[in-house]
Predict the structure of Phospholipid-transporting ATPase.
Amino acid sequence: SFIRVPLLEDESSHLDEMPLMMSEEGFENDESDYHTLPRARVIQKKRGLGWFVSGGWKLLCTSCCDWLANTCRRKKELKARTVWLGCPEKCEEKYPRNAIKNQKYNIFTFVPGVLYQQFKFFLNLYFLVVSCSQFVPALKIGYLYTYWAPLGFVLAVTMVREAVDEYRRYTRDKEMNSQMYSKLTVRGKVQMKSSDIQVGDLIIVEKVCSCFIRTDQLDGETDWKLKIAVGCTQRLPALGDLFSINSYVYAQRPQQDIHSFEGTFTREDSDPPVHESLSIENTLWASTIVASGTVIGVVIYTGKETRSVLNTSNPKNKVGLLDLELNSLTKALFVALVVLSVVMVALQGFAGPWYRYLFRFILLFSYIIPISLRVNLDMGKAAYGWMIMKDENIPGTVVRTSTIPEELGRLVYLLTDKTGTLTQNEMVFKRLHLGTVSYGTDTMDEIQSHIVQSYVQVTGQPAGSSSSSTPSRKPQPPPPKVRRSVSSRIHEAVKAIALCHNVTPVYESRAGVTGETEYAEADQDFSDENRTYQASSPDEVALVQWTESVGLTLVNRDLTSMQLKTPGGQILTFYILQIFPFTSESKRMGIIVREEATGDITFYMKGADVAMSSIVQYNDWLEEECGNMAREGLRTLVVAKKALSEEQYQDFENRYNQAKLSIHDRALKVAAVVESLEREMELLCLTGVEDQLQADVRPTLELLRNAGIKIWMLTGDKLETATCIAKSSHLVSRNQDIHIFRPVSNRSEAHLELNAFRRKHDCALVISGDSLEVCLKYYEHEFVELACQCPAVVCCRCSPTQKAQIVKLLQQLTGKRTCAIGDGGNDVSMIQAADCGIGIEGKEGKQASLAADFSITQFKHIGRLLMVHGRNSYKRSAALGQFVMHRGLIISTMQAVFSSVFYFASVPLYQGFLMVGYATIYTMFPVFSLVLDQDVKPETALLYPELYKDLTKGRSLSFKTFLIWVLISIYQGGILMYGALLLFESEFVHVVAISFTALILTELLMVALTIRTWHWLMVVGEFLSLGCYVASLAFLNEYFGIGRVSFGAFLDVAFITTLTFLWKVSAITVVSCLPLYILKYLKRKFSPPSYSKLTS
């Protein structure tokens, strides 16, 4: 058994495919384990009074301030480090604790934090000031509860909601931090929690010679990457010897880049000391998964210093656009309030202590700014969240941030990840093309019969050489010549695909116990049911699985040989002489093999059509067929071969080895030698592999595009793949050109390339992460402006940080609302940066769906989420917000009219309870029932996504609509008050009762006017409120007089029941509401809204 020491970053996992977690917010290391160790002591100078006077106090002050600043910031400079194997105590400095922390607050910051988030809004701050002013006797108007009760209620609701969210985060973190890992110590294996892992620990990772890891949580790619252990430790006889050698690792400082690592491994006690360089190949990052073998790793980075944490940003508190718009409207109302109060005092002639009157007027009119606005909206948001989760058409949807459902109705940019979001990341072999004949999924059985036939013929020729050929078989007449040529070509092509790759078959032992793996290896248990393939790219696995399905199976592979099993059960052995791996520059891979049976040497090669077309012999079909397959959304690979004689190969090997030893330009010389072989190769076949899309991706993208949403695809994948998927998912429509942005590295290249792009019209843009970086560095505005005009943009090879950066750029430069959707840990920072983050619970784990504001189970659900729920939430909240404002404005108008009639006295028109009752019991149900209103049926909204475009313009709530409501309020308030005063000159006492009754009726009628689609609960709400009011008229009669009871103005029930009271109230109400009904009818007739044209 081998001992492996790759460098582990933070934790490791029991290989049941559990992603390794990382920590967000670390704390300083816990020193308790090591307090017995002698610490270095700093000898300090004696500090006397003289020192203090001579400038020591300055030093003390500055050091105190620095210390405070540092503790507050808790930012440490990241340095390179030396880590001794298995000796955490030898570390020179403290490293962060290896714990995850996703919480926003702790016990001490919770209350101040929540209060700050609430009073950040102008509205709530204003109410706090108003409520506090009631403690001043001179300013006291009515009772304290009229101001403090609503405010307390708002805060209580918010606190409870935040506390629940916070507790959920805490339990999730705790679960992650208490996962168990095995640590290797002098005394053997010890189990420990992931939060106790320290730099320098040796951790055992289960699931050898080389090990594969999966990095989907870092860069979104689900393919396996090969990792290699440190050579020097491989020669140690037993595990315990790791503690007897004296060695350390020197590692660079923690950084964001997940694709690079530099370090050295030094063993001091050997003679001479051994130095080995370490690169990215020797590391296992946190949040990656080990595929096979067992690893012992030394921990280099923990907690906050791990790559995955450095690549995630802190979650911010998201505030919806609607809330910001309402906030600006409340500021406008506040200005109006102050102006009104000043006018009142001016009309009074600034007599007496006018500033006190001014303040009293401000308090009297404070109902202009409705405190109930926030309560209503917050309850509305909770209701929308509940409706989204209860929607049967999108099961499994979770609303994690309940404060921004309206954002779903305002989106202009949708930024999506590719792997796992649009595609399933499952490759399927679809097409084999031999130039004259093409095989699809339905004709694969023909290939199978050809393969079986060709191997039967091969084994049949030597008379009794192999037991598998049945002796009783009659010699067949030779088939026609043409058939044999097709058959042999198929045989050659399949053999080439089965040999030219980097795939390793892995056998899981049936017993499933780790102790039995050695036995399984020795047994060479080649049975089919427990074989799995591992490779660095899923395409290769798909190809090898396909050759298995047609009868040629890869059963074993090591560094020097490969074994294939024929349909007849024979094992063919091939010796691997050279491998030329795939690189993104060469876009091809090659392999030279020698067949054991015949000794033939063959050079096989496969690669992208761009690279291969110049290497293979001239033919007339390759380019055309590649184009056809690409249009179907298939990934194409061209396969070719060349037979080599023994002399040719020896000559090549000598030159190749010389080139590998050269010091200058090694890479170029090696490439030149390999290219000497890559000439006039025989073209065997063209393969097409499909990356399957998620269910209903095409119609969903079509729907979103029609709704005026611009879709950007940000992916960590290769350019060719990304372009392929963009076409097959119809992100780029059939007739559109695709402009591939050439790689640029400096300012002048970027300038030229941007100009070239500017000349193109209506074409999709494909750009790689590096070029994007350069463009943003020099031509940020120009680039974003050009890209925003594109119907679709694809960014490939994006790092997680770049994804978040693009989101922030769009927000800053366009000011439009963005939405990010993804499913892996590499999308978390993008999801948190966007105005609205949606996570998909995918194969890549739950990290994205936990960090998102909304989590869905399938990509296709996003259509309904935006078109139906986004639309409704926004429209309803806009109507609700404006209505609540109207409710406050109308009563303030009445107060103004009342005061101006009564010689500008700052006396309240309605007493405390009436005011509280007005905003709650009497009108709350009908007004709140606006959250059930819908202007279009969900089916219509999905059928005509163009309706969504109107929402993004924000016309439901703007200064224009707001002014209309203000005018309505002033008109109605004036009518109600003047009407009451006109009709009741004789019984002046009854003004309050009449005007208040008319006011309540007006409000209820106005709700009925605003509603577009009735719901039975709305009707119930209307009658319930009316009932409450009528009941309170009977019981609360002392309130319906002017001023207090001391005036002796009791309101007899007898008066309320008279006809005069009823007809006068009805008359006032009709005058205040009828004109609006008429106006609404005319508006619907002459300029109907777009949706009514569809429904009529």
The longest strand covers residues 682-693.
